[in-house]
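Supplementary Note 2. Why include the ligand at all?

Several targets in our set were suspected to adopt different conformations when bound, so apo predictions alone were not considered sufficient. For every target with a known small-molecule partner we therefore ran a joint prediction. The input for fe (ii) ion is given below.
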Amino acid sequence: MTAGSPPPAAPAATSPSEPARLVGEDATAALMLGDDALILSHRLAEWTGHAPALEEDVALANISLDLLGQARTLFSLVGNEDELAFLREERAFHNIQLVEQPNGDFAHTIARQLYFSVAQEIRWTAVAGSPDCPTPIRELAAKAVKETAYHRDHAWEWTLRLGDGTDESRTRMRRGIEVMWRHTGELFVPIPGLPLDEPALRAQWLTALETVLAAATLTLPEGPDADAWTAGGGRQGVHTESFGFLLAEMQHLHRSHPGATW
Amino acid sequence: MTTAPPAEQRSPGPSELERAFDAAVAAEERIEPRDWMPDAYRATLVRQIAQHAHSEIIGMQPEANWITRAPSLRRKAILIAKVQDEAGHGLYLYSAAETLGVSRDELLDKLHAGRQRYSSIFNYPTLTWADVGAIGWLVDGAAITNQVPLCRCSYGPYARAMVRICKEESFHQRQGYELLLALSHGTEAQHAMAQDAVDRWWWPSLMMFGPPDDRSAHSAQSMAWKIKRHSNDELRQRFVDICVPQAASLGLTLPDPDLRWNEQRGHHDFGAIDWDEFSQVLKGNGPCNEQRIDQRRRAHDDGAWVREAASAHAVKRRARATEPPGPPPAVSSPTPRHAPQNGATTT
Ligand SMILES: [Fe+2]
Ligand SMILES: [Fe+2]
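The joint prediction is reproduced in token form.
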């Protein structure tokens, strides 16, 4: 396919040398967490050029880049990052449905960020401190905790501003946390290969959310945190309708030139 | 010129102020925000910095177009970082304009109302992935050629902003070149994509240097004030001379049959630029003028409630902070463990 000559001199990979590949449950764990990061990164990047203020174009792109970095590291533990991102079918993606939800208005995006980044910070902290988790994932977690704290802080601050801002922003923020709530049930479904106390992590998550929402003059939604039939669906490769469109856009160019080097 | 006492401390005649200003400019000293400056100098800078800032943020659009379709994760990361840099350039430049007494909101309103310009190059569409490379190589390349001399601009805050910006632009230029190189050495389809993009972007990039010297409205005065250091045609020539060998190493051709080395001049001759097209695009008849400004306005209008919420919340917080000490608030916001790298808050 390529015209004989090797790809340009620039270094391509995330890591200097080929890392040891994970297998079995450990690989599944890396894929699940990597898919979460990849898909949320993609959604956040959709804001670039459309954000409510220039500072937010910068901030959302920043978070998107951090998550993309996490995804690339996790994919590199399993296989070729581009094959994993661009050549899997919809049912082979294991991200939770929360991260694939369309951006909606800024409040929807912030609600999604709040639920996810608080959970991710708790998860990376737990993984980093658990000797039972696969070593390369622990290393990534230890590195990612710091940037995830910034993501959480960003979501937290905006939740306060929107919840305790104007009447309109409060209405929109309340709507955002309600709409996204029904996709949060998967956040603490046990992940194979990561033996963590999920109910305890979830309790931590709820406490943190109650705290920030109270300060934002809001409360946790009361309805179910999962649909009637999709509870846990994302981890099993069952996604929502918008996900197919996301993949179509993301994968189209790569798939149009099989075997090409970019 | 920072040593000159502020105007209100002594009241010399305007001619004395003007003489001091001229002397400072002649001595290559920097004019700083608190220094006296002629009104026309201030107005020229505001116009130029605003146009530059607007170009950075409108310039995000044609490339951000391709973020969600980037064909590899590595390229996607590079592209997101690039577009993010451009937003950052917008921020530096609006801040530089603020030192001259105009707010970002004011300038954005003028942009949205069509009363201030941005670089016409961004009124061309990005039709294929290779356009991302062509923009990096040619458009960022032309921007660098224009902007490196601005690092020595007589107005301090603008010159300093340009130093930071130029560093990042040269990354963008190299990344664009490298993207095209990968395509050029890739499959036949990829090579064709790269050539097509260069064919479409070459002439518009030459137009980025502005009208020829004999038709340039603002050049002479700007040169005298050392805002501008080289004429449009000089910079355009420099750019052509840089690009010709680079195109050869890319294995791509430039779409100009008249392009050839002129031994006597020590420069490349090149064909006539279609200035009618340039003025049409400037007048709003480019392929994307309306689309670009619409997207800008929409983002701004859709974000109005967010910015209002942020201000309302800031007012509430300040009010709480000045209340007499009572019971501690139920919750304080978390302490960031590392500061947001890019000042991720709005006001
Ligand atoms: Fe820039
Ligand atoms: Fe740039």
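The CA atoms of residues 137 and 173 of chain B lie 5 Å apart. Residues B 56, 86, 89, 165, 169 surround fe (ii) ion (ligand 1) (CB under 6 Å). Comparable summaries for the other entries are listed in the accompanying table.
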